[in-house]
């Protein structure tokens, strides 16, 4: 098995229903990846260990999803120079606005690339990771180009929204 190039981490098992959309895109585009629950609040030592080892293990990007007081992406970014792609998980109490603001409002100097709330954000984080890897992985570049072409062709082939 190829060594993972992308880590998909999340604050809780309950985030998987959202974060699986990131993993599915990586799978579809042939990107070696790993998936794990790493909680900023419940397993802080694991979070530090994961961030410390990320670059050395060959990860080129970390997609981190969390909901509510969503500190996981920001704390990872604080501990590693590997690009962190933050996905706000839709929370029950505030519909994910809390998650979004927790992730996007990083102070100067510690960037987290922040995506949309929920499924779209997770899927787009997967696609964005593919774009980051494309220059060094020709097969990924080709798969990403194919995905985009098929997406465009699908829209163009069904221009009338009244037709199924
Ligand atoms: C966050 O708290 C997690 O990322 C999750 O979105 C939220 C709720 O976690 P659980 O109570 O479902 O484990 O840390």
Automatic annotation (TrEMBL):
Enzymatic reactions: 5-carboxyamino-1-(5-phospho-D-ribosyl)imidazole + H(+) = 5-amino-1-(5-phospho-D-ribosyl)imidazole-4-carboxylate
Pfam families: AIRC
BP GO annotations: 'de novo' IMP biosynthetic process
EC number: 5.4.99.18
Family matches, as Gene3D superfamilies: 3.40.50.1970
Cleaved signal peptide residues: none
Ranges in coiled-coil conformation: none
Single GO MF annotation: 5-(carboxyamino)imidazole ribonucleotide mutase activity
Pathway(s) per entry: Purine metabolism; IMP biosynthesis via de novo pathway; 5-amino-1-(5-phospho-D-ribosyl)imidazole-4-carboxylate from 5-amino-1-(5-phospho-D-ribosyl)imidazole (N5-CAIR route): step 2/2
Ranges for domain PurE: 4-155
This protein's record includes keyword Isomerase: yes
InterPro entries per record: PurE_ClassI, PurE_dom, PurE_prokaryotes
Keywords associated with the record: Isomerase, Purine biosynthesis
Catalytic class of the enzyme: isomerase
Highest taxon in the source lineage: Bacteria
Binding annotation for substrate: 12, 15, 42
UniProt record similarity statement: Belongs to the AIR carboxylase family. Class I subfamily.
Its biological purpose: Catalyzes the conversion of N5-carboxyaminoimidazole ribonucleotide (N5-CAIR) to 4-carboxy-5-aminoimidazole ribonucleotide (CAIR).
NCBIfam families per UniProt: purE
Annotated protein name in UniProt: N5-carboxyaminoimidazole ribonucleotide mutase
Organism of this sequence: Pseudofulvimonas gallinarii
């Amino acid at each position: 098995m190829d060594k993972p190039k992308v880590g998909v981490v999340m604050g809780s098992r309950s985030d998987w229903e959202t974060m699986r959309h990131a993993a599915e895109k990586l799978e579809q585009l042939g990107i070696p990846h790993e998936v794990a629950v790493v909680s900023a609040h419940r397993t802080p030592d694991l979070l530090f260990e994961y961030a410390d080892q990320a670059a050395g293990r060959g990860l080129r990007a970390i997609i981190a999803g969390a909901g509510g007081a969503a500190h996981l992406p920001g704390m990872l970014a604080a501990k590693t120079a590997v690009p962190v792609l933050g996905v706000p998980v839709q929370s029950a109490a505030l519909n994910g606005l809390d998650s979004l603001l927790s992730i996007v409002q990083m102070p100067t100097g510690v960037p987290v690339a922040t995506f949309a709330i929920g499924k779209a954000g997770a899927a787009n984080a997967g696609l964005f990771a593919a774009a980051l890897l494309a220059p060094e992985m020709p097969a990924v570049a080709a798969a990403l180009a194919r995905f985009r072409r098929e997406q465009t062709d699908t829209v163009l082939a069904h221009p009338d929204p009244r037709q199924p």
